[in-house]
Amino acid sequence: MTTLHASSATATAAYYAQYLTAAPGEVPGVWSGRQAQGLGLSGTVGVEALELLLSGRDPGSGMLLGRELLDRFTAKGRVIRAVSGFDATFSAPKSLSVWWALTGDHRLLEAHDVAVTAVLAHLERFGSTTRIRSDGGRLHPDTQGLTMAVFRQTTSRADDPQVHTHAVISAKVQTAEGRWLALDARYLKRHQRTLGGLYQSVLRAELTHRFGVEWRPIVNGQAEVAGVADELLTVFSKRSADIDAALAAKLDDFRHRHGREPSRWERAAMSREAAFDTRSRKSGHGAADLATRWQREAAEVGWTVDRFDNAIQNAARTPAPATVMTVNGVVETVSAQRSSWGRADVIQAICDVQRPVVELSGCRWADAVERSADRVIAHLVDLDPAVDTVRRVSDGRSVWIEPTAPRFTSEMVLAQEEQILVWAIEAQMDPPVPSTTVDQTGLDALQGDAAAAVAGNDRLVLVVGPAGAGKTRMLSAAVDDLHRHRRASFGLAPTAQAARTLERDTGLASDTVAKLVYEWNRPDRAAGDRWRLPVATTVVVDEAGMIGTPALHRLVALAHEQAWRLVLVGDHRQLQAVGRGGLFHELVASGRVEALEQIHRFSAPWEAAASLLLRAGDSRGLDVYETHGRIIPGSLADHLTRIADAWIERHDAGESTAMVASSNDHVDAINAAVQTARLAAGHLDPHRSVVVVGDERAYVGDVIATRRNDRRLITTGGEPVRNRETWTVTTIHDDGAVTVTQEHGPGTVTLPVDYVRDHVRLGYAATEHGYQSATVTAATELASAATTRRGLYVGITRGRDENLICVITETNDVAEARDILDGILAVDRVDVPAVTQRRTLAAQPPPSPTPPSSTARQPPRCQIPEWFTGLLADARHALADSEHTAASHAAERAQRAAAVGAAEHDLAVIDRATAPHREMLAVDEKRADRAR
């Protein structure tokens, strides 16, 4: 396992220097990295040297390494701490720690060190670049390496064996010319999973080579040594055991006081309390002092050293089946998740699959992994432009290209994308032929044009509209026209729930894209089934942006073979497919598009314009939401209480609501909070419950969500049970089966016990993917630093009357919430098609006629005197004071901006009142254009 923590200069220099260098019973830390050698650092890490390094100074001379590490202030006065370094922690599997604790075999620690050394060498090669502004762009050159203080430790806070290494990495790096700049840590941050997987893979290889051991299955890159019993892993996980014991006492007390089982939220709160109550500082005992205790604790559960050794040896006599890793297998793995990728993604895929062989040591295995990555890459398509430019030695790429920018794709991925785009171009070559008989009553001008196109005769129609633009209303008018003329039509959507909504709201018979593709791929498909759509069928795909590239490719092929019309409706700025996708955006960028612009969903006039700003990633939209009190900072616990109260209030008023989160953990927390509040309010029967997925309990009256499509389970209304559909529990049967009624329909069904146990969750909240395409009375988005721009946009555009953004913050300061939201809007984390990535890379700044940096290190032009260093420091402190004053002025401007926001609100009201006249003007302008 690998964890990463950024270190602020003022807070952590002394901590790491004292805590890590003075750990009792542990070997001293050692210096590592090419740049450490350049600074004259070798051997044992000293307290003073590490503290100076993490303060941004030369440990030898005390002089500043480049710019001083100074905190900054945002426009609203928030402090941004300077980052002095990063702590990358590599933890061995628990089975290795237990093995070492019982045997004291130092070769196990050596194997761990071999793995750490290998992964740090990889990191230094590929992750030690910096950034330099140049000619309106940014250069990303290599540096002279990293300065790292490496500390191996062997115990946990509970004095259990836990072999792990802290690699404290300085944020200062030196260019070839001798300039000290900031480390570009994006490789380290983005590829933690790869670095952890490489460490685990090399460790497995070294242990297999030295001891001939076998391994349990690799899960998320990590595996335990075969033969080490689970009970031993539990014995030496006292931190967890202490928490469990404290939690058990709290649970018993709760049951005694309330006469029922606690809800998931109540249990989670008690678990946090138990963790805090049992947290302690390290005792200061070294491994040598604890060895006798460890052997005694193992003996108490029947494990002696001899029995332990025999168990490992016996397990090794039954080797697991050999792993057959092929180039095609690796390519299939990485291409299933993204359209383009980098070397680190290939290495992760290899480490997650390939089991070690006894002939290769850890060092040779690390080399083999790199060579295997080279072999895979040799079969890939390189998307980097083939230009004559200055290139990095580390990865061979242009210094103008970011080291973490995806570089490779496969012939198959590129072929699928190009075939889709070529078909789309051909399908739109002829002039458009819209329907002239669509009833446009109730539609705005652009909705009317889109409906006419959908009901027309074009082979491909692309319709794009932001959230709330009335895509469903437009489709309903188009479907009515198709039905009136007895033209065949069929609807598709990415999920069964979205397909049901499409069919219910438009009258168009619908199902999922996956179901259609599956039926057409079946060799025994019946000639007369509902999937054999006739020639010229209009196939409407709703939420087309969420369709993955493989499914879209198959759908386009079917449309071409069967002469279907294809209508793709969606929003390329909302959520994409889970996996390889992004082609809808590319189609919209290059094709003929019917664009809906007017927002019809929101009751508040200002919200339409503000939502469009957020859709574009413009933080001015957040200014408007903040002005209207829609951004709420607070702790997770505060937000859960607020959300639970809001859900009950809306439910009691008969209003629909959406509680939206970005992670499943937060969804679970909201579900538990609402359930707890309903139990307290007497809305649920506490004496009648059933266990569902995740050890949650569902009571009579609870809202639950089914999480798997099952066409064998049919409601009284004749509909199948769908994934993400919500229901109310009406009866819990003695055998564990549950009778439920649809939340958005009259159907009732009894879910069998197996389905309940494996595919039912509480349904008060869902992720953004679960709510895209939904419209409710009010919505609340629980946002955190993990929220994406597209997820935020989807979450806060579901409600007609109200949309709140509850931001998880450390304080109740709106400025802190704004900083988090601004960061969310700044980055659009999506899968980009390979054709798009190739075009983006080709558009990098042209190569410089002269190299921006030389390969030889240049000496400084003069020796900087000590008095100048102090003067420069004073000037920088004065600059910091000026920036703080500027931030205060910015706060005053923000207050004035709030007044402007209020005025804009009044203008929006006027704007809404004049909207009908603008629609007529738009119609007249279009007619005039057609006449010309």
Brief description of this entry?
This protein has 932 residues and is an alpha/beta fold. It folds into 4 domains: 2-316, no CATH class; 413-595, 3-Layer(aba) Sandwich (Rossmann fold); 605-826, no CATH class; 866-918. The protein has 33 helices and 33 strands.
Instruction: Report helical residue fraction.
Output: 40-55%
Q: What does the largest sheet look like? A: 6 strands, parallel
- Kindly state the mean pLDDT as a whole number? 86
Q: What general form does the structure show? A: globular
Based on helices, strands and strand pairing, what is the structural class?
alpha/beta
* Biggest sheet strand line-up: 16-15-17-18-14-19
Radius of gyration equals: 31 Å
Distance between the termini: 67 Å
Q: How many distinct helices?
A: 33
Give me the count of strands. 33
List low-pLDDT spans: 849-861
Structural domain tally: 4
Strand content: 15-25%
What features would you highlight for this structure?
Rossmann fold; 33 strands; 932 residues; 5-stranded antiparallel sheet; 4 domains; alpha/beta; globular; 46% helix; 6-stranded parallel sheet
